[in-house]
Amino acid sequence: MKSQAEVAPDKLDATVLKIAGVVVLGAIMSILDITVVSVALPTFQTEFDATYAEVAWTMTGYTLALATVIPLSGWAADRFGTKRLYMLAVLLFTLGSALCATADSIGQLIAFRVLQGLGGGMLMPLGMTIMTRAAGPARIGRLMAVLGIPMLLGPIGGPILGGWLIDAASWHWIFLINLPIGAIALVYAFFALPKDSAEPSESFDFIGMLMLSPGLALFLFGVSSLPETGTITATKVWATMLAGGLLVILFVLYSFRPRHPLLDLRLFRNRNLTIASVSLFVFIIAFMGAGLLFPSYFLQVRGESTLHAGLLMAPQGIGAMLTMPIAGTLADKIPVGRTVPFAMALIAAGFFTFTQVGTDTSYLLLCGSLFVMGLGMGGTMMPIMTSALRTLSSHDTARGSTLVNILQQIGSSAGAATMSVILTSQLNGSTPIPGLNDPGTGEPITEASAAIAVQHGAQIPLPPDVLSRGLAFVADSFATTFWVGFVLVLLTFIPIAFLPRKRAASPLVVSDDVRDLGGDKPAPATMIH
């Protein structure tokens, strides 16, 4: 029996591109929604008369729903088929979006965001599974590059789109815009996605689910609470992180026992998957965590509007769009261990500029650095994902993509929380202004917090020298935080050094006819080292 790699043409044909279009639509909805909502948090505070801690749950609830449902994706894809499950995920996400637009209280909005997250959590792992099976190992790099476009452009386009919709219409439209996209995606998926066979013989791992999904949700809840509390010693943080971590550890110990575990950790016997997963995890923590603070610098230090901050981030997306198709083609022809280090060097070079930011750093220099980082981003993330999935059998692809997406979710949450805590702790060291207290809490207002408030239009009578000192302190706080991110970027070179540097005679996907049904031993395969 010939493998898919042997029968698939070298170039992406029309059928594969149609399938890619479906997946990209779903990815655009899921990824854009995260960043679009992030810029609407101040609006939610005003509309629902809520505190920041309350409206932040519109983000946290979505994240926790993602963490809960992602582990189920691999089993569900095998059990019900990827086409039906993908359409269900699009439907849930679209329905959740419609309900979010009707919310008249912050509690309702949070509940509907959870429903959105249940659908959104399945879109990415299912999309990766569908595309990997459609392309085969010989073309997975080029196809993953297509999927990578919305993944990299989401953090850039989200603030631009969100700021424009809120200014031009109302906050409801950041959710309503998903309705026509979701409807198109459903119809498109029905006609474009091929029918696939379900495998009802696999039993569902209820014990694993009771450990892994709550464990991930509790752990990420604790991590997400770090910026709010400012310290890991807060009970809300350490207790939930400890409980979640213990449940995840118990799951890891348990998962090698059942024949069909919820998350198949036996896949980590695949050297490519393991090294690529570690590389991706460290990279996500390093870049995504600090990368979320780039727009914040433009907002808080330079006093830009949300829309302008989003536009200033555009060079990063342009750079990524230029290199991503090239990197996808190269990933199918050259081992990623030979290309990714050069792309990471571009990221490190561009990132270094942000460790030197001040109150008047040249926009030309910053935008040029973002463009260079974008060039590196386009040649890093998707090739690493390609390396992770290309040696898996078609049966294992769903579970492999689930593993990769869980690591992405944990890494992204941990990175964002860590960088936010570092920045907050730096800002808290600012000098209090004598006689100026917060009317709500009674706490003294610092020069840094007053300067940030003035940049956003607050009417606080600050002497010019105090405003100047406050803004300089805020800029220094960002620079220190970016130094931490820069060091983490450099640490990413360690796992990347172990990515495959040699090309096998031919890429091989293990036939479903010869895979090990017992689950106790890895299926025989020629690995790409």
From TrEMBL:
Pfam family, one: MFS_1
Main location: membrane
Residue ranges of every copy of the Major facilitator superfamily (MFS) profile domain listed in the record: 19-504
TM ranges: 20-43, 55-73, 85-104, 110-131, 143-166, 172-194, 206-225, 237-256, 277-299, 339-357, 363-385, 478-499
Membrane topology: Multi-pass membrane protein
Keyword annotations from UniProtKB, A to Z: Cell membrane, Membrane, Transmembrane, Transmembrane helix, Transport
Signal sequence segment: none
Domain of life: Bacteria
Nucleus among keywords: no
SUPFAM superfamilies: MFS general substrate transporter
InterPro entries in the record: EmrB-like (IPR004638), MFS (IPR011701), MFS_dom (IPR020846), MFS_trans_sf (IPR036259)
Gene3D superfamilies recorded: MFS general substrate transporter like domains, Multidrug resistance protein D
Location within or outside the cell: Cell membrane
PANTHER family, per database record: MAJOR FACILITATOR SUPERFAMILY MULTIDRUG TRANSPORTER MFSC
Family: Belongs to the major facilitator superfamily. EmrB family.
Protein name: DHA2 family efflux MFS transporter permease subunit
